[in-house]
Amino acid sequence: MKGLIWLTWRQHRWPIVVSAVITAVLAVLMLMTASDLGSLAAKCATASAKGCQGTKTDSVPSHASYLMNSVVFLPVLVAVFWGVPLLAREFEQRTLPLAWSQDVSRLRWLTGKTTVMVVLVGAMGTVLAGASIHLAHEYHVYTGASLFDGTQFQAGGWLPLTLGLAWLAVGIAAGAATRRVLVAIAVVGGLWIVRMVGMVQLRPRFMKPVTLIKPFDLSKGGGSPLSTAVNDMSLNSNASFLDTHGGTHTPQQAMDSWCGTADDMNACLHQHGIIGTLDKFQPASRMGTFHLIENGMNLGLFVIALAVAWWCVKKTRTTVG
């Protein structure tokens, strides 16, 4: 095992060193930015509301958003620079048949090198995930943005850790299956895009959404009928207006066709029998369950990808020709 650790270090020392430096820099920046956000939030809590909007476009929240996005996209770089070369480069250089023909079996070779990388990625991922969870929380406290929003959600719940492990395995599997570095990188890039787009569509469906009837408060004479709770995952893109008979109407029909030119919007909606909206959302209390589900998916992908890599290695001929 010591020999495999030394070999892994010799072959991958520069990606390991660069990744360790990036991890340290990002962790420090995230902790400093989280501290700044905490200070700003504390000032807003004690000072007058003037000049204390807590908007996302302020410099500190924008900086926090860039840092969280960096952590979210790091796993694909782990796949490209750590996972893919592990087998694909060895195949291209035709060194694997020679290595596996010696005393070290292919299973021991793959297990040893993969274990070293999993431990390193796990350690770095733990540091980054801990810092990003803290940053996402401070970002939410200052800006009021929901922790269910895409970047904040993926920066929390230890997702950076499990994503890093999963995509390390995906990179190894892609390299084992294609045996070409560039082809494997293209496969990883395509799968990453599919994953990003697919999760945006799939995540709101992890659990059946909660639907509430939100009545209009005509006595106050205003306010958007489509407002949602602060930290929930709002699913009101297709919100329906509810009438006294239980019928539903689209916002375009109610707001534009019926009351587009009305001086008193609420009175107009009341005249058409509209009593409120159907508010559909995933409550904030489910966030831990959602993180658990997505972490489980990542770990499942980790296991499947390693199984694919092992199967490809097992089928590889050790003779050159």
* Span of the ends, CA to CA: 30 Å
Count of beta strands:
5
Using the alpha-carbon principal axes, give the shape.
elongated
Q: What is the share of helical residues?
A: 55-70%
Structural class: alpha+beta
Radius of gyration of CA atoms, rounded to a whole number? 26 Å
Sequence of secondary-structure elements: HHHHHHHEEEEHHEH
Instruction: Note the total helix count.
Output: 10
Give the amount of beta strand, in percent: 5-15%
Which stretches are low in confidence, meaning pLDDT under 50 for 5 or more residues running? 220-227
Largest sheet: 5 strands, antiparallel
| Average residue pLDDT | 85
Walkthrough of the structure:
- There is one protein chain.
- The protein is 66% helix and 7% strand.
- Helix 1 (2-46) runs antiparallel to helix 2 (59-92), helix 4 (106-143) packs antiparallel against helix 6 (159-178) and helix 6 (159-178) packs across helix 7 (181-202).
- The radius of gyration is 26 Å and the shape is elongated.
- Strands 1, 2, 3, 4 and 5 form a 5-stranded antiparallel sheet that branches.
- The protein contains 10 helices and 5 strands; from the N terminus they run αααααααββββααβα.
- With 321 residues, the chain is α+β, with helices and mostly antiparallel strands.
- The longest helix is centred in the N-terminal third of the chain and has 45 residues, at 2-46.
- The two termini are 30 Å apart.
Provide a quick synopsis of the model:
The chain has 321 residues and is an alpha+beta fold. The chain is built from 10 helices and 5 strands; from the N terminus they run αααααααββββααβα.
